[in-house]
Give the backbone structure.
Amino acid sequence: MKPNFIKYFLKAAEHEGVEMPMMNPQKDSGEYGEEGGMAKSDLKTLIRNAQELHDLISDNEDLPEHVQSKITLASDYIVDAANYIKSEKQNPGSEIPDSVDTEELEMEDD
């Protein structure tokens, strides 16, 4: 089972309040095949721009809140994607559960 990135990132975007165009998150076997290459190309662009941004910012520089927010959001998405792929490679076919609200979890006394 290949990871369904569209569904995963739509859920992440929805969680963050980011509006996304309506997309069908269902896997269409005729639609997939080159995602790895496209993702690697996107990641190369991300690495290049992240390095450039890193070099432009000094440690004690104040950044506008919207810039801080975008950097944090991008970091969160990349960490989530990396964790998803690692999990999928370690446990093929398993699905990452939706976010769990720890306040809803109840401990049972034995």
In short: The first helix runs from residue 5 to 16. Confidence is low (pLDDT under 50) at residues 100-110. The CA atoms of residues 49 and 55 lie 10 Å apart. DSSP finds three helices and no strands in the chain.
